[in-house]
Amino acid sequence: MKNFGSCAFILLITLISVSSCNRQTDSNDKLDNKMPGSDSLLKCLIDTGTFYFGKGEYQNSFIALEKAEKLIPFSNDTSMRIRLLFNKTELLKIQGDYNSCMKNYFEAAFLAKVSQDSFRLALAYYNISATFAAMKEYKQAERYNAISIQIFNTIGDSSRLMNCCVQACAIKRNLSDFHSALKYITQAIKYYEKHDSKQYLAMSLNNYANLLLDNDEFGKAKEMYKRSATISQQLGDEKGYAVKLGNIGETFLNLNQPDSAKFYIDSSLSIATKIGDAETKLFNHERLLRYYKMIGNAESALEIMDLVLKERTEMLKLESSETIEGIENQYQREIDLLGAKNRVEILEKDQLLQQRAREKENQIWVFLLSLLAIISATLFVIYRKQKRIRAINDELHLREKQILESENLLTISELNIKEHEKKQLEAELDFKRQELINLSLFLTEREQLLENVENVLSNYKYNDDPAKSLVELRNQIGKTSQSEINKLYLRIEELNSSFFFKLKSQYPTLNDDDLRMATLILLGFSAKEVAKMLFIEPKSVDMKRYRLKKKLNIGVDSDLKEFFRNI
Question: In a 3-state reduction of DSSP, which class is residue 179?
Fold first, then answer.
C-alpha cells in the first residue's frame, strides 16, 4: 500500500511536469520566432519617425515608420504595434486618407482590447471619434467619444479626459446641442486654467466664444475671444492670433460697432496675408464686405465683393475637386471600414475560441489534479490506519518481550557483570602480554647487537688494518641498529594496528615517525629509553614529542600518554 501511494504521488508530479513542459514549449516557440534585439530597434525607428514628424519632415518620418513596420512580425510587444499604428495614421491624416486612418484606429483598438491596455484603447476610440468628426459623421463621432470619456475617467487620466471634453463640445455644437457643448467646454476651461495649459486654454476659450456667438451672446463672446487672442499672442501662435482677431472683429460687427470691428479685421487680415492663410483672408474679406455695407460705402463694398468672389471661386474649385475625391474616398472608406470590422470580428472570434480551448484544457487539468488529490488522500488515510494497526501490534509484542526480559533480568545482570570482569581481565592480560613482548623484543635485539659486535671484534684480531676494521664495525653496528629498529617498528605496528588506525583517522597529517613515537609513548617508554632504542639524543626525543603535541593541537604541558589512552 505504501508503494502504491508513492506511485500515485509520482504520477501526480509527472502530470504537473508535463503540463509545465507543454506551456514552456509554447513560450519557447514564441521566443524562437522573435528576432534578437527587434524590440529595441523597433522602438528606435518609431522614435525616429516621431521626431521627424514633429519637425515637419514627413517623408523621413514615413521612411522610418515603414522600416519599423517590417520588424513588427518579429515583435511580441503589443504596445509597440499600437504606437506604430498611431504614428502612421497621423501621416495618413495629413494626406486626407481617412479610410486608412479608420482601419488603423480600429485595428489599434482591437489590439489594445486583447492586451487589456485601457489607456491605448481609450486613445484609439478618441481618434476614431475625431476621424468621424472630420468626415462629418457626428453621431458616430459622439458615440466613440463618449466611450473614450468613460475609459479615461475610469483610469483617472484627467488630461486626456479634458481633450475628449473639448472634442465633445465641437461635436455637440455641430449637433446643435448648445447646453451639452457649454457644459463640456466649461469643464475643460476650468481644468486648463488650474493647470496653466495655455495652448489648450486658448483653444477652449475660442470654442466657448463660438458657442456664445451661435447663441447671440455677442458681449460675452467678444470677451472670450479677447482672452483667447491674448494667450495666442503670448504663445507666438500667429495663425491662432489672426483667427481670434477676426472673430473679435465679427463680434463687433454683430454689436453694430463698425469702427472697432474694422481695426480688428484689418489686424487679422494683415497677419493672415503675412503667413499666407487663404481661409482666414477670405473670412476677413467677407467681414470687410459687411463692414462697408454697414457704413454705406458701396464702392469699397463692390471692390471687396469682387475680391471675395475670386477667393470663393478658387475655394470652390478646390472644394469641388476635394468633394469628388471625398465621395470616392467615402465609398472606399465604407468598403475598407466594412472589411476592417469583419477582420476585427474574425479576430475576436478566434480569440474567443482560443480562450474557450484554454478554459477547457484548464478544466481537464483541474479535474485530473482533483482526482489524483482524492486518490492520494484516500491512499494516505488507508496507509495511516495500517500504520496505526502495526504500531498497536508492535506495542503488544514489546510488552510481551518486556515481561520475558523482566523474568530473566537478574540472570542477565549477573552475566553482564561477569562478562565485564572477563573483558577487563582480558584487557589487562593483553596489555601485560604486549609489554612482555616488547621487553622480550628489546632484549633480543640487544643480544643480537652484542653478538654482532663480538663477531666484528673477533675478526679484528686477524686483520692487519685497524682503521678498516673500525669502519666495518661502525657500518655493521649501523646496519644492525637500523635493521633492528625497522623490525621493532614493524612489530609495534602489528601489535598496535587498531591504535594506528584510530590515530591516523583522527589526525591524517601525522607521518609514520609520528605514529611510531606515539606508540612508544603509549607503551610507557621514557625519553631516555626511546633515545637508546632509536640511537638518538634525549633532546631529540623531547623535540619529537613537542612537534607531535603541535600536530595534535594540544597544550605543551599535556600528558601525551594519557591523551593517547583516551583515543
Answer: helix
